[in-house]
Amino acid sequence: KVYPHWYPARQALKLDPKGKLLRDDEILQNLPVGTTATMYFRDLGPQLGWTMVFLAEYIGPLLTYLLFYFRVPYIYSHRYALTSSPHPVVTLACACHTFHYMKRLIETIFVHRFSHGTMPLRTIVRNCAYYWGFSAWLAYYINHPLYTPPCKFVHIHTNTDTQFSAMSMSFLGPRGRRYPTPTKNPFTWLFFFVSCPNYTYEVGAWVSFSIMTQCLPVAFYTLLGFIQMTIWAKGKHKAYSREFKDYPSLRMAIIPLLL
């Protein structure tokens, strides 16, 4: 109450100035201290809840891509302003990209269950720069008037991309279980093989999008996303294996039988 600008979400405590921050669920009597203890306070800076974090990250790519697709003035040459590409793959790519981020927004608002945790504002700015920047980069080339579409047989991957996105959206982890397991929903059957099927579907969607557009920025974005999701998946897989002694030994982190 004395310092209202230091609300609980931006406060952190630790026992040693160079030590780790204490978790929110730590109990004082269980800490390695005596009858008295000195706590060190750290201001984590402005914080935002997870719902606002994901909304900020996903709205940007959705709107940015559409600006390039509709070729608003001053993006390309003035003679191409507010024109549309004659190539069907460009329209299909826009539909897939729009569907993908609309799906994420819908999941954020209506599906996902978030903890009361928060993210520092400076981290949100960095994440938004990543998502928004890459969206503008790949949209610039895919919607460019001089863009050369791939061969017609590659267009079949458009449907694959949409299906992967739909699978990712349809995946809803079971509630109340000790660890995620397959259900009657066929989109959860990847749990037989991997710990994080949502990341597997996400990678599959972007690989399909890369093949469909044959655009180097898309492939580069897919590679970076795969690396980051692999790190997250391996972390979750390790946590499951450590916490549950009966965790399925045949499961991998993100790629069945491989990784």
TrEMBL record:
Residues 118-258 form the 3-oxo-5-alpha-steroid 4-dehydrogenase C-terminal domain. Gene3D superfamilies: Phosphatidylinositol 3-kinase Catalytic Subunit, Chain A, domain 1 (3.10.20.90). Keywords: Endoplasmic reticulum, Membrane, Oxidoreductase, Transmembrane, Transmembrane helix. GO terms for molecular function: oxidoreductase activity, acting on the CH-CH group of donors. The keyword Cell division does not apply. It is a multi-pass membrane protein. Residues 1-43 form the TECR-like N-terminal domain. GO terms for cellular component: endoplasmic reticulum; membrane. The chain crosses the membrane at residues 48-70. The keyword Cytoplasm does not apply. It is found in: Endoplasmic reticulum; Membrane. InterPro entries: 3-oxo-5_a-steroid_4-DH_C, SRD5A/TECR, TECR-like_N. It holds the Pfam family Steroid_dh. It comes from the Eukaryota. One of its GO terms (biological process) is very long-chain fatty acid biosynthetic process. Belongs to the steroid 5-alpha reductase family. This is Trans-2,3-enoyl-CoA reductase-like 2a.
